[in-house]
Design a protein that fits this description.
Helix content: 10-25%
Order of helices and strands: HEEEEEEEEE
Length: about 140
Amino acid sequence: MKKFWILIVFVSILFSCSDNGISNKNPNIPNYSVNLSIDMNLPSYSNLKFPSNGVIVPNFGAKGIIIFNTGSGYNAFDAACPNQPLTACTAMTINGINAVCSCDKSEYSLFTGLGGKEYPLKQYRIEVIGTVIHVYN
């Protein structure tokens, strides 16, 4: 009987583990390698020091990288519209706390990456060391 309970506890622990990540499987956006570092002391990126501000860094990922200060950390998303073919739209734009797709004008939260469509924004990993933000996948 004791072995049975140990087995139940082990199986419960095994199924309770997760990778704690967001699924980035999106057929519209290829998996480009991203390795970007920016310094918030530079004038182009100084807005990132303040909550609810974001910048778009072109020439990385599929259509550029959107970096956003959430107040409790930073998020990085690809600037390609997640629910449109890659060649159909230009890079997304930032409108306050949302990213707006140029094709269908759909909006996505820069806090969560979610919008009202099938796929969320493609998210990248972030590491902050001092005033340098490192974005990678």
